[in-house]
Amino acid sequence: MTGTQHVTTTRSRHTRRAVLVFGLTVAAFQTFFMEKEEEEEEKKRHRMVSYARGVRTAALRDLFFSRFGALDSAFFLAMFRCTRYQFEILYHKIGPYLQVLVHHNNELARRNSNRRCLKVEEKICIALRVSGGATSTDAAWGFGCHRTLVKRVFLKFLLAVSKSTIGPICYPTTPEEFKKVANGFAERTTRQNAAIYHACGGAGDGLAARIKPVSLRECSNPLGYINRKGFYSINLQSINDSRLRFLYVNLETQGATHDSTAFFATKFSKQFLDANPDPPKDEHGRAYWLALDDAYGQHNSRIVTPWPGRNLITTAPFKDSFNYHMSGGFRNSAQRTYGILLARFGIFWRPLDFQLHLIPFVIYSLCRLHNFFIDVGKNQDSPNKATGLGYYGSRKNDTPRVTVQDEEEQGGPTGYDDQVYHQWMVSDDLMQAQRARTGGLGGSEKIRESITKNLEMLGICRPANKLGRLRSVLVD
To answer: Are both 49 and 120 inside the same structural domain?
Structure first.
């Protein structure tokens, strides 16, 4: 091969290589621009779908609130677990805490957007539906929002309840408050029983609130939450009055803890039973006492429990009379309180699906909401006639408001970790020490014995057995 042919072959080889590189470059650029065009088309389609979804969601919300005012009383009560009157008061009590402050830079964008933010009444409706037993999927489908938003709205609603002053849970501290509680029990029983069972400062019991299974990431002893019935729970200890309001709520112990151990491990028990040498007394000189069931034992003179034993109607008829009137006039109010709480808030029908550190906050806030509904009552009048506050379905309160100042002055909570109730699980060592302490106490039975003697002096016994078994027992 000559030199000229060699140079020509080399040039042709470089030319083919350059053409190949150029072609690959052009193909790469074409592929890149095609992908960009497809991406832009996908974004356009996504915007169209999002716009249509937003329009449909707004239409669903507007359709719901167009029918909201036409719901009859029974259907409204079944959906939201409250009457229209209670809804109206709740709206104006916690509405300022559910307002969303919009930044001035985003205000114009929100006005031009097809997706509007949730109104206050929508948030309350979603939260009440969830607390009433609806799942996140049901509430999301009914109100036209995503199910992840439902739980967030529910927690914000409970946060607003905790920040407000509705349904306070506080045990009496003055003789006047104790007298009011005792008179409430006296009004709901017979005149004879009111004279005998006087100075009742409340009725208490425990409840196993079902929760989701606990993992080792959330606590060091997950098995401590499995109760004797075999499911995960938190031990709820409470004291209530005759109106079935919660006066005291404690959620410090795990589900496997016995009611007696859980109650006597609380600070309330120490302040009420041990740390007060001169407790408040009524006009008859009797210290105010608590009506508890036999699971708590007779550990203190300020705790009254039923007489133990079986077939007391034949062996000790007046002890049986004490148990009968004690249960019907006082102790059953604790069971009725829990019954109303569970019937109103269907969220307790399934395990509470929240993080472990939020579950006490959820239960405590629902107990306050329970107190609020009892305080307000069931006024069946229209909201305009009942309160004069106007129709709550309007958007008159959608403008940003200033947070209530009196709550800030009192140092109100600002987040989930700064709630009025903070979870503190009692350690196993403290539980064992508490069991040893309470197991060795005999307690005083002066109140129980004196009431039984009064029943015997007056001849008061079970109404159904007054002329039957009791007469045969006395004759024998």
So the answer is: no
- Same structural domain, 455 and 332: yes
pLDDT in tens, 10-29: 667 667 777 777 777 877 77
pLDDT of res. 269: 84
Mark whether 211 and 339 lie in a shared domain.
Answer: yes
Q: How does strand 289-291 pair with strand 303-304?
A: parallel
**Is 181 within 8 Å of 234 (Cβ atoms)?**
no
Contact (Cβ atoms closer than 8 angstroms) between residue 278 and residue 191: no
Average pLDDT, the chain: 75
| Separation between Cα atoms, residue 97 and residue 165, nearest integer Å | 12
Range of the domain at 128: 72-164+357-401
pLDDT band with cut points at 50, 70 and 90 for residue 247: very high
3-state SS of the chain is CCHHHHHHHHHHHHHHHHHHHHHHHHHHHHHHHHHHHHHHHHHHHHHHHHHHHHHHHHHHHHHHHHHHCCCCHHHHHHHHCCCHHHHHHHHHHHHHHHCCCCCHHHHHHHHHCCCCCCCHHHHHHHHHHHHCCCCHHHHHHHHCCCHHHHHHHHHHHHHHHHHCCCCCCCCCCCHHHHHHHHHHHHHCCCHHHHHHCCCEEEEEEEEEEEECCCCCCCCCCHHHHECCCCCEEEEEEEEECCCCCEEEEEEEEECCCCHHHHHHCCHHHHHHHHCCCCCCECCCCCECEEECCHHHCCCCCCEECCCCCCCHHHHCHHHHHHHHHHHHHHHHHHHHHHHHHHHHCHHHHCCECCCHHHHHHHHHHHHHHHHHHHHHCCCCCCHHHHCCCCCCCCCCCCCCCCCCHHHHHCCCCCCHHHCCCCCCCCCHHHHHHHHHHHHCCCCCCHHHHHHHHHHHHHCCCCHHHCCCHHHHHHHC
Q: Give the whole-angstrom CA distance, residue 261 versus residue 456.
A: 33
pLDDT above 60 (res 412): no
Q: Which of 68, 84, 99 is the last residue of a domain?
A: 68
In angstroms, the first-to-last Cα distance of the chain is 142
Please give the tally of structural domains in the chain. 3
Co-location of 386 and 327 in the same domain: no
Q: Are residues 377 and 457 in the same domain?
A: no
In DSSP terms, 206 is beta-bridged to 237
